[in-house]
Write a structure and sequence with these properties.
This protein is of the alpha+beta class. It has 3 domains: 175 residues, Alpha-Beta Plaits (2-Layer Sandwich), CATH 3.30.70.270; 55 residues, DNA polymerase, domain 1 (Orthogonal Bundle); 143 residues, Dna Ligase, domain 1 (2-Layer Sandwich), CATH 3.30.1490.100. Helices cover 42% and strands 18% of the residues. The protein contains 16 helices and 12 strands. The protein has a 5-stranded mixed beta sheet, with helices on both faces. Strands 9-12-10-11 form a 4-stranded antiparallel beta sheet, with helices on one face. A 3-stranded mixed beta sheet has the order 3-2-4. The longest helix has 22 residues. The chain is globular, with a radius of gyration of 23 Å. The protein starts with 12 loop residues before the first strand and ends with a helix.
Length: 396
């Protein structure tokens, strides 16, 4: 009988990574693309940034983040496709369905990423390596896509493992061997590095993650600025993301407001709606996550309720964007001309938030992001209602 070495028994975090997600989906749908250099971008021309590249495009020097216009200069015959969001949502749901058969503790990331905690599932499915192999086979058979799967003691190391074994394989990093594994890896696969950081590290002659890990904190700050210490911790294999992987069924955010008095005054009801949306999105930003689904429940003065379930736009991030979204939800959920007593919302189906900046709007997006960060800091210190756009509506 095979016994898993004791050193690896606690390495229970599994990361499933469909490398170059949208490109992989396109190639699975149209096998002729495997013979072409192609990229995925929001638009097929101009300054829009490339999301994914095919193997053929990478060999031509095209990189993720490069503008489509730059890519055409390198490869005039390049095929540019827009992401098939309907196919992506279908595949993501299927990935989640498959993963739920192996563990209840799942972090549902977007664009072909899933994290599972296999702790406690050994008696059902065997050691984490067996679970990873089963997952990989199941995904390949059901979706005609072969993932990379990494096993480690935390999400960060498991994620780097899947980047190190691209395009597809299964690998396990034993507990206690994280730093040894990371030392020899290409520094460019370390999450959290910006383009400017990569240029600085390249100029300094740093090629492997180990070179960054060997810096002390003072050296890291001198080289990379105020984020240098955090990046050094990543190079040491320390996962800075908050919390553990949630059990999927309990992974929800719920907020509710009871109106001071039952009311059918629309501005008052809207004010309450905006208040709970702001509170929910403050929690989302703190978790660096986005939700796919929202459920709104309205309780009327006669204790009857109406409920609406809706999707959440991927670009919905900041307080200023919640006003029109809240009004739309409310107009669809208010089904009775009776005074409202309370409003509640529930967010679910979370994934890690990933920014896709428009090159023309980058500066404005940065300003909006910094402003929102300052607002959220004040809310954490003094309470959610210290700064709210809903105040004027809700209070008169």
């Amino acid at each position: 009988m095979h016994h898993e070495p004791a050193a690896t028994q606690d390495a229970s975090i599994i990361h499933v990574n469909i490398t170059n997600f949208f490109a992989s989906l396109a190639a699975a749908k149209d096998r002729s693309l495997n013979r072409k250099a192609f990229v995925i971008a929001p638009e097929t021309y101009g300054a829009c940034a490339i999301i994914n590249t095919s193997e053929g495009a990478r060999k031509e020097g095209i990189e993720r983040g490069m503008s489509v216009a730059q890519a055409f200069k390198l490869v005039p015959h390049l095929t540019v496709l827009t992401p098939d969001m309907q196919q992506a949502q279908t595949v993501q749901r299927e990935l989640l369905r498959i993963a739920q058969q192996y563990s209840p503790a799942i972090e549902h990331d977007m664009r072909g990423h899933l994290y599972l905690d296999a702790k406690g599932t050994r008696r059902l499915f065997g050691p984490p390596r067996d679970i990873a192999m089963g997952l990989s086979s199941h995904i390949r058979e059901d979706l005609s896509i072969t993932p990379s799967v990494g096993i480690a003691s935390n999400r960060l190391v498991a994620k780097i493992a899947t980047r190190a074994i691209r395009p597809s394989a299964v690998t396990a990093i034993a507990v206690g061997e994280e730093r040894l594994f990371l030392r020899s890896q290409d520094i460019n696969i370390l999450p959290g590095l910006t383009r400017s950081m990569k240029r600085v590290l390249s100029a300094a002659g740093m090629r492997n993650i180990g070179a960054l890990a060997d810096l002390d904190e003072t050296q890291a700050v001198l080289l990379l600025g105020r984020n240098g210490i955090a990046v050094r911790h990543l190079a040491l294999g320390e996962d800075l993301s908050a919390g553990s992987i949630h059990t999927l069924e309990n992974n929800q955010i719920e907020t509710r407001v009871d109106l001071a008095h039952p009311s059918e005054h629309l501005p008052t009801i809207e004010g309450g709606m905006f208040q709970i949306l702001e509170e929910a999105w403050t929690q989302l930003r703190a978790r660096e996550e986005q939700a796919e689904r929202v459920e709104i429940t309205i309780v009327y003065a006669d204790r009857q309720t109406s409920t609406l379930s809706a999707s959440v736009p991927g670009e919905l991030l900041y307080d200023g964007q919640l006003i029109s979204y809240g009004r739309d939800l409310l107009s669809r959920a208010l089904k009775r001309r009776i005074m409202v007593s309370s409003i509640g919302i529930r967010l679910s189906h979370f994934h890690r938030h990933r920014k896709q900046h428009d090159l023309f709007k980058f500066e404005q997006e940065q300003l909006s992001e910094r402003f929102q960060q300052h607002v959220d800091t004040l809310r954490r210190k003094y309470g959610n209602r210290i700064i709210t756009r809903s105040f004027a509506l809700y209070h008169g």
